[in-house]
Amino acid sequence: MSTTILWLRRDLRLTDNPALEAARHCRRLVPVYIHDPALSGRWAPGAASNWWLHRSLTALDRDLRQLGSRLVLRAGSTGEVLRELIRECNATRICWNRRYEPGLVLADRELKLGLQATGVEVQCSNASLLFEPWEIARKPRADATAPYKVFTAYWRACLERGLPGMEAHPRPAKLPALPGGVASLRPTDLGLLPRVRWDAGLQQHWQPGETGALARLNAFLENNALDYAGARERPAIAGTSGLSPHLHFGEIGPRQVVHAAQWRAHNLAGNGGPQIEAFIREIGWREFAHHLLFHFPDSDREPLNHRFRGFPWRKKYADDLNAWQRGRTGIPLVDAGMRQLWHSGWMHNRVRMIAASFLTKNLLIPWQEGAAWFWDTLVDADLANNSLGWQWVAGCGADAAPYFRIFNPVLQGEKFDPEGRYVRRWVPELSAVPARYIHKPWSAPPSMQGIRADYPPPMIDLGRSRERALAAYRQG
Ligand SMILES: Cc1cc2nc3c(=O)[nH]c(=O)nc-3n(C[C@H](O)[C@H](O)[C@H](O)COP(=O)(O)OP(=O)(O)OC[C@H]3O[C@@H](n4cnc5c(N)ncnc54)[C@H](O)[C@@H]3O)c2cc1C
Q1: Would you say the CB of residue 390 lies under 6 angstroms from ligand 1?
Q2: What are the residues whose beta carbons fall under 8 Å from the beta carbon of 90, sequence distance 6 or more?
Q3: Scanning 73, 88, 96, 383, which has its CA 20 to 30 A from the CA of 319?
Q4: What's the rounded mean pLDDT across residues 175-191?
């Protein structure tokens, strides 16, 4: 009797899952997830991602059981575990969806060739991008193609090609049963949850899994999408979709998101078009990030703009880095963002830019340090998006903010958090400071300060550190 293995990786969903669709027409189906953090090398998932993964695997198992199947969990070296499972179940076919991080692409390629050499049929699909990274290319000459480095040109090319519609991969009503006796670990055996339970804030904010992802998409389209272009810049309100961790783990796919958003715009008969377009464009940035990391495989650690290779970053900065990580810089908006991150595993995009600019420009700490901290603490930590975000802010990326664009956290706060609601929420030491001083409490007259004694003074002068950064740029 034919057995197919469905190897689930970054596609933890049952709807619009091409590998599942390819695999499910068989007599016996073995859905497996293999925990092998060593495969990702230096980018093994961080603590917040592990928390998410635990919950997402639990949800996926529950969903699979409703369809007459279950999730087989294994741990160890991917190749060995797969070969062992193939022997155990007498499997003749394996289906998976591609991942695009450089190290994983190489590992998949080797594995595929090895399996095919032993007579196993391998079928690979795309579940996580609108376009695979090699599908969109410039044509600098008639006989050559090259990757894009500028977002607007890249996105224009995507739109000209036409965003893919939703393929007909609805959630199956039933799945073939597993062969008898296939053993599985339990999610708790993988040791993904923190030993010291710091995750209460994460529990409060998120519902990992496909059901949670669809609920978020629907709530966003229903309540916030029509205001997206303006509301997305306001950290005090839930103006964005909050889909990033769901997209990262593949609990929902970009095709589903784009299709649902376009459908919403269509139903509004043109009224919400520009807002929805702005939202879909952000999905475009996610695509662009994957395009860049695929074509420039060392851009997770090396500046894309080679001019920055010898940039005079500071060498000794441990205490300053620690203050930034803990949200104790004395700059209210930066501290609010870093505390939101620590508490909820997520930070608003505008505040990510401001906190990153403060670290790389005002403090002159290498962007790779910030990227590593985000990697460990974000529930949506994603190598492509994180590398693009940090390189963009540091000014050394392909299509980056110019280095001399240094975010002023006071002016940014006054513009995007005018009443200081976001700061007050995350920095309670400042809750009594009047709105006009909330982003620069050090400048309030003593009678009006209201700053709790345990809040630190600014760790650096914003104006002088800006000048120092510009001088470093001229020298670098
Ligand atoms: C320094 C820095 C680091 C970042 N690190 C990450 C990361 O590790 N993982 C991550 O998913 N995003 C990262 N981003 C991008 C962005 O901040 C988040 O994707 C966004 O805040 C997620 O919230 P949302 O889902 O509500 O976004 P929405 O505004 O609702 O956008 C919808 C989706 O589009 C994608 N998207 C939105 N903005 C961007 C962007 N600038 N670049 C790439 N994709 C985008 C995300 O998948 C997001 O879920 C980073 C940005 C910066 C400046």
Answers
A1: yes
A2: 3, 179
A3: 383
A4: 95
Can you give the residue range of the structural domain that contains 247? 128-167+210-295
Residue 320 Cα to ligand 1 middle (Å): 26
Pocket residue to mutate for ligand 1, from 217, 275, 340, 380, most atoms within 8 A of Cβ? 380
258 and 337 part of one domain: no
Alpha carbon of 352 to ligand 1 centroid (Å): 9
Rounded Cα–Cα distance for residues 96 and 308 (Å):
38
Q: Determine, yes or no, domain membership for 183.
A: no
Distance 244 CA to ligand 1 centre (A): 6
Nearest CA to ligand 1 atom 6: 386
Distances (CA, A) of 163 to 214, 254, 404: 20, 10, 35
**What residue type is assigned to position 411 of the chain?**
L
Q: Average pLDDT of the chain?
A: 94
Asked whether 328 lines ligand 1 (CB < 6 A), one says no
**384 CB within 6 A, ligand 1:** no
Sort strands 28-35 and 144-146 into parallel, antiparallel or unpaired.
Answer: unpaired
> Where in the sequence numbering do the catalytic residues fall?
282, 285, 313, 349, 367, 390
Cα gap 276→272, rounded to integer Å: 6
Residue-wise burial string across 292-323, b where 16 or more C-beta atoms lie within 10 A, e elsewhere: bbbbbeebbebbbbeebeebebeeebeebbeb
CA distance 362 to 463: 9
- Closest C-alpha to ligand 1, atom 2: 389
Among residues 100, 127, 154, which one ends one of the domains? 127
Q: What does 26-78 look like in DSSP terms, one character per residue? A: SSEEEEEEEE-GGGGGGG---HHHHHHHHHHHHHHHHHHHHTT---EEEES-H
* Beta carbon of 355 within 6 Å of any ligand 1 atom: no
Highest mean predicted confidence (pLDDT) among 128-142, 267-281, 317-331: 317-331
CATH (domain of 80): 3.40.50.620
Q: 3-state secondary structure string, 372-399?
A: HHHHHHCCCCCHHHHHHHHHHHHCCCCC
Q: Is the CB of 380 under 6 A from ligand 1?
A: yes
pLDDT in tens, 137-179: 998 887 888 999 999 999 999 999 999 977 678 999 999 999 9
Confirm or reject: Cβ of 232 under 6 Å from ligand 1: yes
Residue carrying structure tokens 């769901």: 246
Report the distance separating Cα 230 and Cα 130, nearest Å: 25
Sign of the Cα pseudo-torsion (349, 354, 360, 366, in order): negative
Between the CA of 386 and the centroid of ligand 1 the distance, in Å, is 8
Q: How many domains does the chain have?
A: 3
Ligand 1 atom closest to residue 352's alpha carbon, by position in its atom list: 53
